[in-house]
Every structure is written in C-alpha cells, then in structure tokens.
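User: Fold both of these, please.

Assistant: Here is the first one.
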Amino acid sequence: MTNNPNELTIENSVLVLIDHQPAVAINVHSIDLGLLVNNVAALARVAKALGVPTVLTTGSIHSAAAPALR
C-alpha cells in the first residue's frame, strides 16, 4: 500500500453507468454493439464481485427508447 492520498480503493470508488440504453448504443460506431454490451456487462459483474457500488442512470426510463441493456 502506498501513501498516495489519491489512491483508488473499493471504499472510495463508484462505478457510474450513464445512459446504457439500446437507442443510445445503436448510435455508437466506434465499437461493435455486441462487444460494447459484453464489455459493459463484464465491467458491472466485476464491480459487483468486488463490492464496488454501482449507479445506473438514464435520461428517462419511460421514453420511446427501449429499456436499459441487461
């Protein structure tokens, strides 16, 4: 362990997933959609396994867009 006051730990970290909805993901062209979904899912699973708090946000849960990616 270092004496770095800015060191990231599980206790001072949080994972924030912003607007992970199909209507948003479809417009991402820098990565394959399947790979994007798999990467986000893996990141969320690892955060859960490590006990890192996770926040999922969306602009509107009841919009014309499809439900959040699962």
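And the second sequence with its predicted structure:
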Amino acid sequence: MCFLVSASVFACGGSSGPDQIAFSSDRDGDTEIFVMDADGTNVRQLTTNEDRDFIPSWSPDGKQIAFSSDRDGDLEIFVMDADGTNVRQLTTNEDRDFNSSWSPDGKQIAFFSERDGNPEIFVMDADGTNVRQLTNNDDWDMSPSWSPDGKQIVFNSGRDGDGEIFVMDANGTNVRQLTTNDDSDGLPSWSPDGNQITFYSYNSDRDDDIFVMDADGSNVRQLTTNEDRDFNSSWSSDGKQIVFNSERYGDPEIFVMDADGSNVRQLTQKGYTPRYKP
C-alpha cells in the first residue's frame, strides 16, 4: 500500500536563529533532505544517500531532524543533527516505520508503522527505545501530529470508511472524530498556539485543497482554492504563515501563504514535505 504522509511540526520553547524550512527533494537524482531559509534562499543539502531520505521533522529545540529512509532496505526512522551530521537509526523493523512527529518536550517521537499488518500509530522514546502502540484498528491510522501542550495527538484514519481527522489523548485513549466529510481529510498539523488544525481535503478528481478548523473540529474554513492539488501544510513558529505543497504548476513545489490563505508565494523548484523550524 502507498500512502501520502507528512511529519508534524511543534511550536514549544523554540530555538534561536533565522526561520528555516526543512524539506525533501529529488533534485540530486534521488530523494534527500534539504534545508532553506524561510524565503526560499540559502538551500543546503543535509543527506547524501543512494536510497530515499524524506519526511523531515524538527525536534522542538531545532537541534535535530528525524526523517524516514529506506537505506537499510525498508522504511525506517532515523535522526540526525540539524546540520546533517551524526545520523542514527531509531527503528529496525521488517515492516515500514515512517512519518515521525516529536513530542513538544522532545522526549518522545510518534510515528506510524505497518508492523501489525496495517498502519497504526506508535510512540517511542527519542532514542528509539520503549516502543508502544497507541492505536489498534482494522483500518489505517497514520500521520500523527502532537499538540503543542503535549496532551493530544491528532491523526487521520480510515476507520469510518474514508479518510477523516481524529484526535486522541497522548496515551492513545479518548479517541474523538473531528471531521465528517464525504471526501477524505488528511495530513493534520496543529497551529503553534494549539487552537487550530490545518489539513487537506481530497476527492476522486484530485482537486485537493488546504483547510483549517478549530481544534475541536468546528469552524472549518477553506484556505486554498485551486484546480490542482494543494496539500501537506506546516505552520510557522509565530503562527502567521503556512507552508505547503502544491501541484498548480505541474510537479509538487513548496509554497507559503499567510495564515488566512492570502499572499501565496512559491519558494522552490523541486521540493515537498516542507516543515518549518520551531
């Protein structure tokens, strides 16, 4: 099975220095992790590997980046220092582990894995130890994103028959459905203040757009209106901007907009899964 996934961004504590965006790109021939300044300049390549490195996720202090890679033969989660050095493998499993999301205190990483036969959400300590399964469902659960206060994890699931957004307590209990829609909703991302969640909604015509809702699922607003796909959103640390992927000019590229959907600007040629530095 193939799924569109994304890592999560947290805004807690924060780190000094200019705003940066980590992202994936195949501009060197295969998929690697890059970082750029928030205006799209000063692009630097962090990984150089013959296999795929993608879906970056900043640690809350901005000092590390977790990512997914199939460099050991299947998809696993790795972590590196923010300059690309000191790469360590966190998961070792015959099935796919990917789409990592740090807890706001930096002590845990949520991810989803197919180790029980279908995608479920797991959590582990930040060094890869103490793996625990949070969801156990006949359908898929994926794309976890931790709330800024660390108390909840939002995710998307096929448990209602199509993709919808759900939220649960950080220990896997108290699951609540946030969206109910005939189309599919996915890739949720918390705002830095914890009051809003962006996601994208998609249909069979591949007319995907980015929406935002209050954290309880109410007050849904559409941010992008485009005949091509807009997806995979991530908030800036001050909550004023949202970076996202769009296929409006053909291939997936990285764009940024103000948090109300206005002032859209293109940042890259060849880039996807953008993530703002906390």
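The chain has a mean pLDDT of 91.
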